[in-house]
Amino acid sequence: MSQANNLFPTPFVVDRLQSEAGIAMLREAVEAEMARDAGGVTISNIGGWHSNTQMVDWGGEAARALAYKAMTMADAQTVDVRSPQESRFGWIPEMWANVSAKGNANQYHTHPGSFWSAVAYLDDGYAGDDDPALGGELQLLDPRMPMIRMTAPDLRLLDGSGQAMPSEVSFRPKTGMIVMFPSWLQHAVRPFHGEGTRISIAINLIPAMKKPA
């Protein structure tokens, strides 16, 4: 009897922000920067407000604490194979804020040059409404695409439990949640239809060799 081995898994890490005061401080920093630079920038965002990527500088102590949280998560999920007991690498964080209202979205993209990417949700914008029609899900695309669908779109590979593997996964954010995934994983945000305002912070972690002691 043949044996199937499922290779090359893709990690998707979910954690929570523990400090309500820290979330409030981050929100105040985002609102202040949005007032200072109302135009923001346009990268992957379709509508909404996207800050510059220097939030580690303008976001204050709370932003630096969030960057440290992301780096701690990355350390727990990464190994330096040439120095497994003590990694020779540290992380350089890059951080920005996204503010989305009804109809806003983010197109599929990756974060070249980074190793890990994270998103922290200060406000999911749903105001406690569980209606799936509100959209706004984080979409994750199978990184093996388009290989598995290039000849027969109705065929799927089976996973370890015998179920069809999806080519795309939807993840509904919650206020206070932080998620992390490899920066090469294509991701997007479906159009958001909530009555509230979605506020999230994105973080890239770029590996860098530590300086000798």
What can you see in these coordinates?
The chain is α+β, with helices and mostly antiparallel strands. The protein has a single domain, classed as Jelly Rolls, CATH 2.60.120.620. The chain is built from three helices and eleven strands, in the order E-H-E-E-H-H-E-E-E-E-E-E-E-E. It has a six-stranded antiparallel β-sheet. It has a five-stranded antiparallel β-sheet with strand order 2-5-10-7-8, with no helix packed on it. It is globular and about 65 Å long. The protein starts with 12 loop residues before the first strand and ends with a strand.
Quick synopsis:
The protein is of the alpha+beta class and 213 residues long. The chain has three helices and eleven strands, in the order βαββααββββββββ.
- Poorly predicted segments: none
Helix content: 10-25%
Into how many domains do the coordinates divide? 1
Distance between the termini: 55 Å
Q: Could you tell me the strand content as a percent range?
A: 25-35%
Shape: globular
Largest sheet: 6 strands, antiparallel
What is the N-to-C order of secondary-structure elements (H for helix, E for strand)?
A: EHEEHHEEEEEEEE
Extended strand count: 11
Count of DSSP-assigned helices:
3
The assigned CATH architecture is: Sandwich
Look at the structure and name the CATH superfamily: q2cbj1_9rhob like domain
Biggest sheet, strands in spatial order? Answer: 1-9-6-11-4-3
Mean pLDDT comes to 94
Question: Regarding CATH, which class?
Answer: Mainly Beta
The assigned structural class equals alpha+beta
Computed CA radius of gyration, to the nearest angstrom? 19 Å
In the CATH hierarchy, the third-tier topology is known as Jelly Rolls
